[in-house]
Amino acid sequence: MNASWREQVGAAGNAPGAGLPGERTSIVLWVTALVLRSAFIFALMLLTLRVSMPQTGTLWRIYDTPSDAVRLILAIGVCIWLAIQLFRAPKDAHASKTWLVLGLFAVPFVVILLIAVW
């Protein structure tokens, strides 16, 4: 029982290169992951708002069909949740690495979807 916490976690069978919870993140990795994460969430917000707009014309005709009103209210709720997530930055190296890899593939995909829907 004299082994430190890091040695115990390392001996527990972690994948090589997975990183430990106390590992420091380089500033370049953190900023890149944060920018990609923010771009992904912002593009998702735009896509959600665009898809939820009323199909009968303008925003002021939302009350003509109840399904348009429900769709817009749900979209506003989703956008509020996404906006909250936008300001919660990844706290560890593993989350930054995940957002870096995910962002490199997800951001172009969401931008393509946004262009196609618009």
Task: Offer a quick outline of the entry.
The chain has 118 residues and is an all-alpha fold. It is built from 4 helices and no strands. It has one domain.
Detailed description of the structure:
By secondary structure, this protein is mainly alpha-helical. The chain has one domain. Helices cover 67% and strands 0% of the residues. It has helices spanning 5-11, 27-52, 66-86, 93-117. The radius of gyration is 20 Å and the shape is elongated. The N and C termini lie far apart (61 Å).
Which structural traits does this protein have?
mainly alpha; 118 residues; 67% helix; elongated
Task: Outline the secondary-structure elements.
Blueprint: H1 5-11, H2 27-52, H3 66-86, H4 93-117
Q: How many domains, as an integer?
A: 1
What do the pLDDT scores average to? 80
Order of helices and strands: HHHH
Low-confidence stretches: none
Quaternary state of this entry equals single chain
**Count of DSSP E strands?**
0
Largest sheet: none
Question: Which percent range fits the helix content?
Answer: 55-70%
- Straight-line distance between termini: 61 Å
Residues in β-strands, percent: under 5%
